[in-house]
Automatic annotation (TrEMBL):
Keywords: Glycosidase, Hydrolase
Protein name: Nucleoside hydrolase
Entry's Gene Ontology molecular function annotations: hydrolase activity
Domain Inosine/uridine-preferring nucleoside hydrolase: 4-300
Signal peptide as annotated in the record: none
Organism: Salinicoccus bachuensis
Keyword Protein transport: no
A Pfam family this chain is assigned to: IU_nuc_hydro
UniProt-listed InterPro entries: Inosine/uridine_hydrolase_dom (IPR001910), IUNH (IPR023186), Ribo_hydro-like (IPR036452)
Length: 311
């Protein structure tokens, strides 16, 4: 099985991504690192522990990471993910697992050093932990097999979800994202351009009726789906983070190209924008693989099939 570390800011779609990764039975999840993002770090930690307990995978270690961006103040999105970050779907849920003492960036470095060339790092939150790890250990980019990131917007200008040209994960810590993009690691960006084409509708949720995760998926996505309906008039919520896991499971879900990508960190109108040099105007070597198209129907079907497995 492919060895992975998941770096998360566990809101609703992070939770679904974790369950998708675990239930795929194709990934050896060495650990989950947490980062401030959708909700404060303390909530991220609890949500992650609860999801692992729900899945019966309490043996997977959880390493807490950065509780704030490198330079900016924290911003959270409770209006999308609910008061606790997962739509209060696990209120009162008992869990016995606890976070580890090791800091997230140190765990990433340690595991990559112990398994050189074997680990895929799946990052579905702000990139603060990764930036700290790359800054601390110059060899990390060589030790990691690849970094697959949910973030950014490369070709749909004006259709961001934080600023017109900016996506939330990159916006939350653009300085960190810039460090990661220029780290030399093999990097793939699964951006809003494709993730917004993967909607989980109320009908899709009911496909899981009678299965283990039906109640959690229905309850956790209620506020998320309501937000999508109000803001975008969409019947469903985008599976941003699960699609990032989906790419690791099956590259055929997405079409990709490699280009030079940089991050805007100065302009107040464009902070966090991921700028892709499609025409090679900057004369820079390509550093990021971007996603240009997605088979959304096939991916959503696989996601539902995976979460609906028996036993």
């Amino acid at each position: 099985m492919k060895k992975v570390i998941m770096d998360v800011d566990t809101g609703v779609d992070d939770a679904l991504a974790i369950l998708y990764a675990l239930e795929s039975r194709q990934l050896d999840v060495l650990g989950i690192t947490t980062v401030n993002g959708n909700v404060p770090l303390e909530m991220v930690n609890v949500n992650t522990l609860k999801i692992l307990s729900l899945a019966g995978r309490e043996e997977i270690p959880v390493q807490p990471g950065a509780d704030r961006p490198l330079l900016r103040e924290s911003e959270h999105v409770h209006h999308i993910h609910g008061d606790d970050g997962i739509g209060n779907a696990l209120d009162g849920f008992e869990h016995n697992n606890q976070c580890e003492a090791q800091f997230a960036a140190d765990f990433i470095i340690e595991q990559a050093k112990n398994h050189p060339g074997e680990i895929t790092l799946i990052a579905v939150g702000p990139l603060t932990n990764l930036a700290l790890a790359f800054r601390k250990e110059p060899n990390l980019s060589k030790w990691l097999s690849e970094v697959v990131i949910m973030g950014g917007l490369v070709s749909e200008a004006g259709r961001g979800n934080k600023l017109p040209n900016s996506e939330f994960n990159i916006f939350t810590d653009a300085e960190a994202a810039r460090i990661v993009f220029h780290s030399g690691a093999e990097t793939t960006l699964v951006s809003l351009d494709v993730t917004k084409q993967t909607l989980l509708s109320s009908y899709d949720v009911e496909v899981l009726e009678g299965r283990k995760y039906h109640d959690f998926v229905r309850q956790s996505t209620e506020v998320y789906r309501a937000f999508s309906k109000e803001r975008f008039n969409l019947d469903g919520c985008a599976l941003h983070d699960p699609l990032t896991v989906g790419y690791v499971l099956n590259r055929d879900f997405l079409k990709t190209e490699k280009h030079y990508v940089d991050v805007e960190t100065i302009s107040p109108l464009g902070y966090g924008q991921t700028i892709c040099d499609f025409g090679g105007l900057l004369g820079k070597e390509p550093n990021v693989t971007i996603c240009t198209d997605v088979d959304g129907e096939a991916f959503v079907a696989h996601f539902l099939e995976t979460l609906g497995k028996e036993g």
